[in-house]
Amino acid sequence: MLNPIINITNAQIQKFAVIGDYGTNNKCNTNELAVANLVNGWNPSFIITVGDNIYFGRNNISQNSCTPQHVNDYDSVVKKYYGDYYTKNINTNRFFPCIGDHDIAGEIDIDPRPGFYLAYYKEYFSLPNNERYYTFLMGNIRFICLNNDFGGISTWTGGGYTDTTVWEPDGIDSSSVQAHWAKSILDTSTAKWHVIYQHKPVYFSYIATSLDIFKKVRWPFKRWGADIVLTGDFHWYERVRKGNMTYITNGLGGGKFDPLFDDTLTNFVYIPESKILYNDALGAQLVEEYKDSLVFKFITVNNQLKDRYVLLQPKTIRVKSLIEGSYKPAIGKMVPDTVSVYLRRSNSPFTIIDSAKALTDSLGYGLYNFSRAKYDSLYYLTVSHRNSIETWSKFSMPFDDDLQYDFTTDSAKAFGNNMTKRETCGVSIAEIQ
């Protein structure tokens, strides 16, 4: 089920695309071309990638590939399909990749530590900092690209990597030089939004016991000030909510599907924090910035919206309420008005812990920011309006940045059912009295 959608009335500020695990040049029964056509059709301001920008290695003709027509240069997978965005000029470039394991080791069993292919990656792209990991600012968004890859052999063999050597010289765990650099960027940034992107996923559904090394890349992103983490590597789309942080894996940019749903379901572990897991069709993410939110969409090459996630500022929740007298059933809209929402403790005497005001939109949505609320604590929501009876949520609920509550779907959503039911356009709604 898709996330409930806020009625966004603000003008779009900018949009960008996210692609991952795409660098195949349409070979080996893949379809990078279809994804590229999808992305180019959006006309995004810029593109970021979550790794595996090339699959088969430069000048490597001895690989066990599905076709002798190897992809052996970035012109075949970047310039050919995303040439309007890629440029060698760092000041005009609109294509910002991160490093994947195939960028390091190609598709053959070689030790990536000498940097056999990495030198070519750095030669081809013109990126900030040391080019392995870097940061840049686009309007209100600070992007931090990390290099957290590992594994001397890039191919998957028998349920685990045969070599878990960390080749990044500045390390990949939370105490590494790279992590200290990222934390320093977050500590000093004044940007409104902070987006982390990297190749290896942080939290995901999989055979967890065989992937212990992934724990190294579980940095305290939320505590450091990041807003969301985007990753690739696994050839599916998954959105995970863990520790009040959202992690999105997007590896459907053109590489072959991972065969998990076909032949290894008995070994597959769905983690409870997974909100959606999908790999039926290739696609990419379109991200739109508005004044009050970033909206992340995953769209397939068939132009089907499979996921929509709305990211708000920390400790901001979404509440929908319709005020009796202000709501006009004939048009299905409400005269926007100021509404107050209080957070009350879940146990007697139900003390008020925090409060916030917001101007609702014509559909009754309001965004309420709380400064004193504590994550994961249980609160009742109470809605107050100058001409209405104070209305409580039916139940207390854990506070989270993803918390949303809709009073309008049924009078039973309020404690004591103290709302009025109305019929509008054949749909029953509930109004606060």
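Above is the first protein from milestone M3; the second protein from the same milestone is given next.
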Amino acid sequence: MDPLTLTGQILGFVAMALIVLSFQFKDNKKLFIIQVGSCVFFVLHFLFLGLGGDASAYSGMAQNVLGLIFRVIVLASSRYPKLKNPVTMSLIAAAMAIVAAVTYTGNIAELLPVVGNFVCLGGIWTGNANIIRITQLAGVSPCWLTYDIILFSISGILVETFNIASIVIYYIRRAVSKRRARSEAEAANEQPVAETEAGQSETAEKLPDT
């Protein structure tokens, strides 16, 4: 592995560490700030992979730059709500398409980060946590994971695998919690009936024979 590619892989691990760290914060603002920092390191990660000889990495670098800008806008929109509007979203989407065309070298794998970013843009823009998870699981992570495997971005592979596993575990835990709550509710509804039947039997036993 040449020095530039090795440097890129190391920077990728720094980006991955920041993403893992971001999940330790419950405050959305701090989470976003750390994830923005992670995006910066992923930009450098793909830049050095590209300098190391794989031109397909520049697509990932460019889309991470746009992802970084997009996250900064989302973060700023909490303070300046007017930033979050259809015009801004359309401009970001147009920028993604233009950058994709500029960085395209003929390798179809380079389109995967573009598709992933489009799906991510739509999901995050809704502000709905469930939609964000579903779009991440069904579109964003599969696109980036496939791209990372082709490019051999070790940190990228680990991050997307972690994202997919985290979301799957979340939905499994939610399903188990709902099933447990349903079982407890059914048990609570059946208990009074059982007690009533027992009470009726006891009353019948106490009635004198005529």
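Note on the second protein: DSSP finds seven helices and no strands in the chain.
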